[in-house]
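Try it yourself: sequence plus S-adenosylmethionine, in.
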Amino acid sequence: MATPKAPPNKGRVQDPDEGHVSTVYDVKKMTDAYTAHWQDQLKRRGSHTAEERAQRADEAGQVSDDYYNFVSPIYEHFWGQTFHYCPVAPGKGIQASMHDYDTMFAGLVGIKEGMRVLDVGCGVGGPARTIASETGCNVVGVTRNKWHIERGWQLTKEAGLEGQVEHVEADFMKLPFKADSFDAVYAFDALCYAPDVKDVYTEISRVLKPGGAFAFHDWVMTDKYDEANSAHRHIRNAIEFGNGIVNMPRLAHVRESLRAVGFEIKHDENMAWRSVRPWWYAPGGVIWYARGWEDFQRVLEMSPVVFWSRQWLLHVLVWLGLVPREALQMGYTMHACVRSVANGGKLDIFTPMWVMVCKKVGSTKGKVA
Ligand SMILES: C[S@@+](CC[C@H](N)C(=O)[O-])C[C@H]1O[C@@H](n2cnc3c(N)ncnc32)[C@H](O)[C@@H]1O
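Structure, out:
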C-alpha cells in the first residue's frame, strides 16, 4: 500500500502559550522561543562552551519542542510526512526512496502482523503509518511535541489507520508504559535528541519484552569525527543549533551505551553507504543529483543561490516593515539545519542514518510505570 499523500501544508502550528494548534504561524514568537536557548552563541558562529552545553542538556525536551514548533511546517513542505533521511534509491529522490526504505527497515527489525510496536519520537507519524500498513502491526507513536500529535492524528485518520496507529504525547526519557509491554521498539532520527542516549536506551529497555527487538536509524558523529579538530567541532555545533539537538552522540558512545544497558547488537551499519548518490545532495542544495521534477524543485529551494536571494529579499521586506526581523534569523537557522548536515556528510564525520538492530537480553530491570 502506498504512503498516503500529505494534504497541503496550511502553516498550522501549536501555540505554546495556549497549548493547542493555532492557525497562525507567529514567526517572531517561534523564532524567539527557539533562539533563546542559544543566546550569544549565535554571534560566536555557534561555538559552545561546556557550561552552555550542560545547561541546554537540562532543558533538552524544551529545546526540541521549541525547535519543532518553529520548523514543523517547513519540514512538512520539504520532507512530507516522514522527517528523516534515507539512502537514495536508483532513479529516485529522497521522498520517493522513503517508503521502500521504511518497509525494508521494518523487515530488518522483524516486525510482523499483530505485534505491538513502539515508535519513539514519531514526528507526524509517516514511518508509523508505512510500517503499520505494510506489516499489519499496531504502532504506538510517542513524541512530546503537541503539534506533531495533533497533525499525526489528523493524517492517521485520513489514512484510515486509527485502529492501528496511535499518537501519544510523552517525553521519551520517561515513557508512560508498563515494563515489558512492547514486542518491538524502533526510532527514526529521534534518539539523538536525548541529553545522553544511554538514558533513553535504558527507558526503552524497560518497556520492551525480554528477547524483543530494539532498532534505530539515527544521527551520530562517526569514528572519523575528531573533537580536537576545530572544523569538525564547528560542524557538530552547527548540527546541534540547526536541528534543536543538545548533545550530538558519538558512535563509540552509542555502542558502549547499548551494551551497558543490556542490548546485544545484531546489526550495525551506516545506511549512507547504501545510497547510490550522496544522501546529502538535498540539504546541500546540489541540484544535479536531483531526480524528477518534485525532487528538483525541493533541492533548488535549498540551493545556495535561492537561499541567498531569499535572504536578500527578506532584508528588503524587513526594511520596508512588511515582515518581522525574526524572519531573517529563521532563514539563517534553516540554513544551519541543512548545510551543517551536508558538510558533516561530505567529510563522513556525520551520518543521519546509522542503523543498529539489537535484542534485549535478560529480564527487565527498573520500576513498572
Ligand atoms: C526528526 S523528528 C523524526 C520524526 C519521525 N521519527 C520521522 O522519522 O518522521 C524527531 C522527533 O523526535 C521527537 N522528540 C525529540 N525529543 C523528544 C523527547 N524528549 N521525547 C519525545 N519525543 C521527542 C520530536 O518531537 C520529533 O517528533
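One thing you can check immediately is this: Residues 62 and 124 are 18 Å apart (CA to CA).
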